[in-house]
Amino acid sequence: MRVRVEGDSMRPALVPGDWLLVRRGATVRPGDIVVARLPDDPDRLIVKRAQWHGADGWWLESDNQRAGGRRDSWDFGPVADIVGRVVLRYWPLVRRRVRSSRPESMG
After folding, report:
1. What is the torsional sign of CA 53, 72, 13, 87?
2. What are the helix (H) ranges across the chain?
3. Residue 92 has what DSSP assignment?
4. Are 72 and 62 in contact (CB under 8 A)?
5. What pLDDT is attached to residue 105?
6. Ramachandran region, residue 14 (left: φ > 0; alpha: ψ -120 to 50; beta: rest)
7. How far, rounded to the nearest angstrom, does the alpha carbon of residue 45 sit from its chain's CA centroid?
8. Which residues, 6 or more positions from 57, have their beta carbon under 8 angstroms from its beta carbon?
9. Residue 68: which of 2, 1, 4, 8 has the closest Cα?
10. 11, 22, 28, 57: which could form a disulfide with 64 (CB 3.0–4.6 Å)?
11. What is the mean pLDDT of each run of 10 residues along the chain (107 residues)?
12. In 3D, which of 81, 3, 4 has the Cα closest to residue 40?
């Protein structure tokens, strides 16, 4: 399946506008980026990093804990409904580098 990243919670690994290829039902290991159903709103998907697996499911965390609107297992606990594992960021093909806002020297 294909998923589009929204929000800043997975920066710097993923940024808003990235498109991901997700393998449904794939084996998940700690450190993998996964797509899961938001526990209190199962119609919404979230993209998070799988940290560890316990009796109640996977502990999922955002890479950017300071992102506005961030929600992960620190908010809702372990997640049992993992949709799949991210296998590829396919768009954009190349990320543009942010240019420095400092003026270049003239000399």
Report:
1. positive
2. 73-76
3. S
4. yes
5. 43
6. beta
7. 10
8. 78, 79, 80, 81, 82
9. 8
10. 11
11. 97 97 97 96 96 98 96 97 97 69 47
12. 81
Residue with tokens 């270049």: 104
**CA 35, 39, 45, 47 torsion-angle sign:** negative
- Which tokens hold the place of 105? 């020297």
Report the alpha-carbon distance of residue 38 to residue 81 in Å, rounded: 8
- pTM given for the model: 0.85
Residue reference for tokens 């998940």: 28
What is the C-alpha separation between 103 and 81, in angstroms, rounded? 49
Buried/exposed 19-51: b ≥16 CB within 10 Å, e otherwise: ebebeeeeebeeebbbbbbebeeeeebbbbbbb
Cα–Cα distance, 19 to 36 (Å, whole number): 16
For 29, the token pair is 């290991």
